[in-house]
Structures are given as structure tokens and as C-alpha cells.
Automatic annotation (TrEMBL):
Pfam families: Acetyltransf_2 (PF00797). It comes from the Bacteria. This is N-hydroxyarylamine O-acetyltransferase. Keywords: Transferase. The keyword Oxidoreductase does not apply. The lineage of its organism: Bacteria, Pseudomonadati, Pseudomonadota, Gammaproteobacteria, Enterobacterales. It comes from Franconibacter pulveris. One of its GO terms (molecular function) is arylamine N-acetyltransferase activity. InterPro entries: Arylamine_N-AcTrfase (IPR001447), Papain-like_cys_pep_sf (IPR038765). Belongs to the arylamine N-acetyltransferase family.
Length: 280
């Protein structure tokens, strides 16, 4: 189905006039991550992740599914462009897993230019996604339910960090080189098909509701990020299936993009077996 701004705004619950100003940008960002879940079900199911605007719109808006960074930030950027914002596509090297060597650019984000400032927006970084856009300047900080975000300039690059407890954890680093669709196609293919990609071995989901705490899911471990966090091991795959729909706002009944209970159970048998092998 072709992209329509009206249906996207309805999907995220944005019901006022969309203007080219920071108030609109901030509200769109916050409502997007509250309505559309981060999730990697299609990678686990062996389905190709299509990155054209119409395919992403059909999956995340019409079908009520979620997705990961290449889908989320593509949809968000298309909406911003339709409203009239000036944007530039960027890519980042993810550092959150503390890789031994510098990783490739496998994360999509977007730079948004307004008259008064330039901002970094990112609605697709899972449980650690920015709550609202962050000013693109050295030392910019943003308090959130996740912790304190900080942006530091390192020569020609920027480093995004998150302070949790008593230290800052690097999340990703990026420069301002414009990215093209082909760049994302290559990175998306790598993330979805590289044998060691964590997206191929773990079920991941996250949602940032407006009125309740952030929710994350790793396999069958669901965490409500209250103070202190409340973690629960979902007892079986039927409970997991229900949680994806009821807690994470992921529709699973679409003719093309839906997921059956049986399909999920088969995927989770493999995922949980791999988790058990890793823990030995």
C-alpha cells in the first residue's frame, strides 16, 4: 500500500496540525516509539526485510507490525519529508555490545534541520531508543526514562552515550556523510543474513508507551522498566504470542505480515535451544 501521511499520523495517535517546527518533531518522535514496536520477527522467520517506502508502510502501518531501524527510521523520515522537514539520512556503528574491533555501519538514523538548530532523530534503537530528538552539538544532553543521553564530538564523528547508574555507556558513533538507499540495502542484508547477527538468534522487542514504563523483550524474558525493573519469564510460547499483541502492540493477524502461533512456536524452539546451549 502506498504511503499516506494521514494514515501514519493516525497509527501513532498524532491528532493535531503537523507543522515544520520542533514541537511537531518532538511529538512525532515520542508518539512513534510509543505506538510502533521495535521487533525482529521477520528475520527469525526467514522473511526478507523490504526497504522501499510502500513495503515498510504496509507492514508497520497497515498491518500493525513493528520492525527494526531500517524500517522505523525510513518510515519516520518519509513522514517528516511529507510534512516539509529538511532531513538527511545517516548511518552509525553500533558499540553497545563493546565489539573488539570497529564495527560496520549497520544502524540507520536521521538528521533534521530546522531554522534554529540541527537535530538527531532515531526511532529505531530498540529499548535504548532516544525519547525525543537530540541537538547535534558537542555536549548536548537529554534526560529520559532510560537514563541521561549525551552527544560528544570526536574529530569528524559524534559519539552517542547513555548514562545508567554511575557511568556513560557508548551506544553508537556516526559522521554526517549522507547515506543512500543502496547503503541501507547492503547493511540490512548483512544484519538479516550474517550468521552471527544477534537478530538471527534472539527474539527482540521494545515499546516506549506514553503513560506507562518502557517494555523490552529478549526471547521470553519480558522486562517492565519500573524502579526497580520488574522482569518475568513468560511460561510458554502461547503466553509470548499474547504478550507481543497485548503488551507490545504488535498485530499478528495480517494476511501477508501476520504470524501464526505455530510459526512463532517453531522459531522459539530453535531460539530457546540456542539460548540453553549458550548458557552451558
Amino acid at each position: 500500500m502506498a504511503f499516506t501521511l494521514e494514515h501514519y499520523l493516525a497509527r501513532i495517535g498524532f491528532n493535531r496540525e503537523a507543522r515544520v517546527d520542533f514541537s511537531t518533531l518532538q511529538s512525532l518522535h515520542r508518539r512513534h516509539i510509543a505506538a510502533i514496536a521495535f521487533e525482529n520477527l521477520d528475520v527469525l522467520l526467514g522473511r526478507e526485510i523490504l526497504l522501499d517506502d510502500d513495503s515498510i508502510f504496509e507492514k508497520l502501518v497497515t498491518a500493525g507490525r513493528g520492525g527494526y531501524c531500517f524500517e522505523h527510521n525510513a518510515l519516520f523520515t518519509r513522514a517528516l519529508n511529507e510534512i516539509g522537514f529538511e532531513t538527511q539520512n545517516l548511518a552509525a556503528r553500533v558499540l553497545v555490545a563493546k565489539p573488539d574491533e570497529m564495527p560496520p555501519r549497520t544502524h540507520r538514523l536521521v538528521m533534521v534541520k530546522l531554522e534554529e538548530a540541527t537535530w538527531i532523530a532515531d526511532v529505531g534503537f530498540g529499548g535504548l531508543t532516544l525519547s525525543v530528538p537530540l541537538p547535534l552539538k558537542d555536549g548536548a544532553e537529554q534526560a529520559s526514562a532510560q537514563g541521561l543521553y549525551r552527544l560528544e564530538k570526536k574529530q569528524n564523528e559524534f559519539l552517542l552515550l547513555l548514562r545508567q547508574h554511575d557511568h556513560f555507556q557508548p551506544l553508537y558513533r556516526f559522521d554526517l556523510e549522507k547515506q543512500y538507499p543502496a547503503d541501507y540495502l547492503m547493511a540490512n542484508h548483512f544484519i538479516a543474513h550474517w550468521p552471527d547477527s544477534h537478530f538471527r538468534h534472539h527474539l527482540l522487542a521494545a515499546l516506549h508507551p506514553l503513560d506507562t514504563c518502557r517494555l523490552t523483550l529478549v526471547n521470553r524474558r519480558e522486562t517492565a522498566h519500573e524502579k526497580p525493573p520488574r522482569q518475568a519469564e513468560l511460561k510458554d510460547n502461547d503466553t509470548l504470542y499474547d504478550s507481543l499483541q497485548q503488551r507490545f502492540n504488535i498485530r499478528l493477524d495480517h494476511p501477508r505480515h501476520g504470524v501464526t502461533r505455530d510459526s512463532l512456536s517453531k522459531v522459539m524452539e530453535r531460539v530457546m535451544a540456542e539460548e540453553g546451549a549458550e548458557s552451558k
